[in-house]
Amino acid sequence: MKRLIGNKNAHECIQRNGKYWTFKTNEKPEVEVNIEGQTKLIKPEEVSAQILMKLKQSVENVVRKPIKSIVLTVPAYFDEDQKKATIKAAEIAGLHVSELISEPSAAAYAYGFDQHKFSDTNLLVFDLGGGTLDVVIVKIKDGIFNVVAIGGDTLLGGRDFDNALMDYFVDIIEKKYKKKISENVKVMQKLLKECIDLKHMLTATEDAK
Ligand SMILES: Nc1ncnc2c1ncn2[C@@H]1O[C@H](COP(=O)(O)OP(=O)(O)OP(=O)(O)O)[C@@H](O)[C@H]1O
Ligand SMILES: [Mg+2]
After folding, report:
1. Which of 43, 38, 36, 53 is nearest to 5 (CA)?
2. Which of 48, 51, 54, 146 is the most buried (most CB within 10 A)?
3. Which residues cross the membrane (predicted)?
4. Does one domain contain both 112 and 164?
5. Model confidence over 43-71: pLDDT tens digits?
6. Is residue 144, in this structure, part of any structural domain at all?
7. Cα-to-centroid distance, 120 and ligand 1 (Å)
8. 143 within some domain
């Protein structure tokens, strides 16, 4: 969803990645979902809103207080349209966005770089996520972060490693069983899960089954 939300070039993204997705999209872009047996087309911000609602509920269950306002993080390279669409998702979820900060700044906070001892520091944040690679330089002064340089690849993330493994195994399975599986959403979803598990195992070990 992050690759689609507020993205002016969504059609390019769909062309390149669509075949790996286990949901259907159109050019607008809208996502096809099944709600209580009915097929509906919803916008990426509405999908994100559902995720935010789920997160809000999980947090409320722990802190036992209603969550009304949030600090929202977005990739450093997000343009105004992408930011607006992300804020819209929060609004749909009934959340007020008190501040929007960039993901590398959030990472710097998480690692305690807002502490005084890191003042006057240039920090390189390398963030390879599920969907995107963000490499940024953050200037830290008196606990304030300023993103001064951005690089990376908005269409490279762990999901692409999964896709490469999927291509590899789909080919082997289709040849071995003489059956087409790439159109079968359930089978592809199962294979995707296996590929992700395999990828995680291969981070720690030389080989895995
Ligand atoms: N042990 C591991 N070995 C290899 N990859 C891993 C491991 N653990 C997690 N990953 C991969 O990291 C990715 C998730 O990273 P992260 O949680 O940083 O993403 P994200 O912040 O949700 O995504 P993005 O920033 O792109 O929106 C997934 O592709 C996941 O499979
Ligand atoms: Mg991330």
Report:
1. 43
2. 48
3. none
4. no
5. 999 999 999 999 999 999 999 999 999 99
6. no
7. 30
8. no
For residue 138, give the nearest of 158, 160, 109, 161 by alpha carbon: 109
Helix pair 80-92, 44-63: axis angle to 10 deg: 50
Binding site membership of 158 for ligand 1 (Cβ less than 6 Å):
yes
**Which atom of ligand 1 sits closest to the CA of residue 128?**
18
The whole domain housing 198 covers 158-204
Burial (Cβ within 10 Å: 0-12, 13-18, ≥19) of residue 120 = exposed
| Closest ligand 1 atom to 196 CA | 31
Note the pLDDT of residue 114. 85
Residues 105 and 26 in one domain: yes
Question: Worst-scoring range by mean pLDDT, 25-39, 45-59, 105-119, 122-136?
Answer: 105-119
- Domain total for the chain? 2
Residues 144-182 pLDDT 10s: 888 899 888 878 899 999 999 999 999 999 999 999 998
Measured in angstroms, how far is the CA atom of residue 90 from the centroid of ligand 2? 17
142 Cα–ligand 1 center, Å: 31
Q: Is the CB of 196 under 6 A from ligand 1?
A: yes
Instruction: Decide if 112 contacts 121 (C-beta within 8 A).
Output: no
Residue 36 sits in the same domain as residue 108: yes
